[in-house]
Amino acid sequence: MTPDGPASPAYDRAAPAAEPACAAAAATAAAHAAGAVADAAGAVADVSGFVGDAGGPVADVSGPVGDAGGAVVDVVALGESMVAFLPTRPGRLADVPSFDRGIGGAESNVACGLAAAGHSVRWVGRVGADAFGDHLVAAIAAYGVDTSAVRRDPDRPTGVYFRTAGDRATDAHEVAYYRAGSAASAMAPDTVDLAAVRSGRVLHLSGITAALSEGCLDLLRLLTARGVDRPLVSFDVNHRPGLWRTAGAGGPAVLLDLARGADVVFVGDDEAREAWGLDGPDAIRAALPEPEVLVVKQGGSGVTVFARTDAGAGADAGASRAAGGGDVVTFVPALRVDVVAAVGAGDAFAAGFLSATLRGLPVRDRARHGHLMAAAALTVPGDLAVPPSRGHADRLAALDDDAWGTLRLGPGWTQAAERAPEEVRTP
Predict the structure, then answer these.
(1) Which CDD domains does the annotation name (predicted)?
(2) Looking at 347, 365, 383, 394, which residue is catalytic?
């Protein structure tokens, strides 16, 4: 996103999500989700292929996966969610007198976004058998997410954190985590319901989970191991140097190894530079040749998507074939956004991209839907925004390149479902 204000969207800097648990907002999101399901007319449940009309399918996510204990859903997201305390006014944590309670978690944020967009979603995690755990599960479920596989830990607490109101990209931003020894840190192959984890057409994970404990790392290694009966695995690198300082050395190498086991990978070019010393999308692709789809987020300029296809496959308009013929490379410019709060965009982008993937849309439109979901997050104070209706998002994603380039979105744009795109754009 290119901000028209002091805040920077920086998709790749989005930390674990935080959004006040507003029942009204969740109800609105649930209503949108119901409408999206109706509009889909069954299309979401029948995913025809991975690359859509960019050529032959790269991976097939069209049928039930594994021996899931429960109904097969579109997406399962696994990871830690926490109770977040958001300041009622700007200032240092030492100076802020009061906080609003919210929820926070990169993976659960993606789950909420996908559920609000009309998909069937399950969140798998562990929370304490405490009041904060009660609040967390109820708040996520209010967005239409299935929380039946969440386990309660009688001995470990639900994690919490406090953050300042400023942009996370600035030196003034503060985050204080109280997650050591949390219930989520006890996730391991033998403490989660693996059948529920594998019960989706897509399994979404992030590198944050790997840094929480050895058990969590063992779990992610198991889930990213390639095999014939696994779901399509989506992995957001989410490099958090502070977490890895606590977890021990080797974080960047661990994240690279996990990403190599995934089918779809999201990574910011700046975090790839910080973690792996890689500059630019081509260098990142060279280090990550295994994923079928690699999405490199380039801040305010846009995203570059590498999609592996058969030699004879076609490509989206404007895409180019990489040297060697193995990839179709598509650059999709970001939007201009009147930013309210530069938080949550990374998780929202992943939700939009995965939603369009489940619908079999071409690569360009997947990235555009990611940009649109990110714009929804950027134009509200918190991270979890009500997405545009499916029809509204489809109309914007279908704009020609010139119209897309003039699109500018501000607060309230997601509610403009009945307005023509021209009413949202500015000269």
Answers:
(1) KdgK (cd01166)
(2) 347
